[in-house]
Amino acid sequence: MTNAISEKSSTNKKQNVHDYLKKVYETVVTRDPNETEFHQAVALIFKSLIPVLEKYPTYMEKGILEQIIEPERVITFRVPWVDDEGNTHVNRGFRVQFNSALGPFKGGLRFHPSVNLSIVKFLGLEQIIKNSLTGQPIGGGKGGADFDPKGKSDNEIMRFCRSFMTELAKYIGPNTDIPAGDIGVGAREIGFMFGQYKKMRSSFDAGVLTGKGLEYGGSLARTEATGYGTIYFLEEMLKDKDLSVSGSTVVVSGSGNVSIYAIEKAMELGATVVACSDSDGYIYHANGIDLDVVKEIKEVNNGRISEYIETYPEATYVEGCTSIWEVPCDVALPCATQNELDEDAAGLLVQNGVKAVGEGANMPCNTEAIDVFLDNDVLYGPAKAVNAGGVAVSALEMAQNSMRMSWTFEEVDAQLQEIMKNIYQNCVAASGEFGLPGNLEAGANIAGFRKVADAMIAQGVV
Ligand code: NDP
Question: Ligand 1 center to residue 27 CA distance, Å?
């Protein structure tokens, strides 16, 4: 009798949670029906939270989910700029200040023609959880513009960045909101934006942007942080299964900041990286990619990855970026962009014996692809956890700026390694505690969410 009652109450609890999540999700979709990437990010997080809400219904009673999926503030603005021929262009700028429960808003700026509110909101929502996982006092935000930096001169980039910052400056500050780079925004763009911010404020507020140049307040190891952190996380994940980066064959998509430094660290630890890509296609080099050549093409000359075969004619270049996942490997690291790895690609990877997948990019695997990995016992490291090293070192850059001092590369790198280990352990612990062992996606969402939710409850509804 007692058993029957408790079974019934457990079924009721499950139903309540299910109904609640469905209702909140429907509100999200009804409010903004076109924001498909944002819906995808919300659905992934909600799926992980089912056992948490069953155990702690207070999160439902206090309306935490309704609050967490609605940004504190959304700013969109006009970015007019003049090209080298004197023509005027107008782009759209965004900043989503999503959640400040744990600290000032923190998250990158993306300059890419695909940027819209859905993309910025999905990135911002993921950023809340990611920043929480780092254990540092930073809230979540994200921004950018639908501006295409490709093919623009330095002067055009400078004019765009200055115009962008002229508006953004009204909303950010070292204790309010601290942007950084992302796709299309590197040290050059951060420099131009910092220059404009300083001019407008007549004040050297180093802590207002991260990813700065080393000459004026940047942190050593920030450039490497996301890629290195990805490999530190991967190594932890592999170690638990008595595997190692050393001796593995690795495929990395993209050839930007995250990809290049993931490749560098993987090679340093003894892996052979056989393929990488850009948005036009991928290169395959069976003996292992020559990273110096990739850096020369992408970092120095802003060129195309296809140029690699001019130096190594024995390597192959394949047109089209999505087919990179046909290359057999032990470890796949999608480090380019969202939804670049679908169910079919995941199936191929599994068929070819992939052992681990680590998301260097944000939400690169779609929902179906993740299910394929989990169903086939492939180690799967979700972006929120795997690529958190970038923002973690950004927070270390802020700390150094506040102290007006700088740490050595080794000091920052040691802290990064420690942070990535902790993130991994916390994801494992949370997934185990809520009955989902081995599901690091759930572990990351649960561990990240609970800290933010508890801080929101402590601060009350405002
Ligand atoms: P970059 O702009 O430095 O590089 C992006 C790379 O991805 C380029 O090689 C680009 O090629 C390639 N790319 C873009 N779209 C596609 C596509 N559809 N298929 C294949 N390749 C593509 O960006 P980052 O390296 O900084 O960022 C990459 C990802 O990592 C993003 O998802 C970002 O949000 C995430 N991330 C970045 C962090 C950072 O610190 N930089 C921190 C955490 C996450 P092309 O040159 O042709 O455009």
Answer: 31
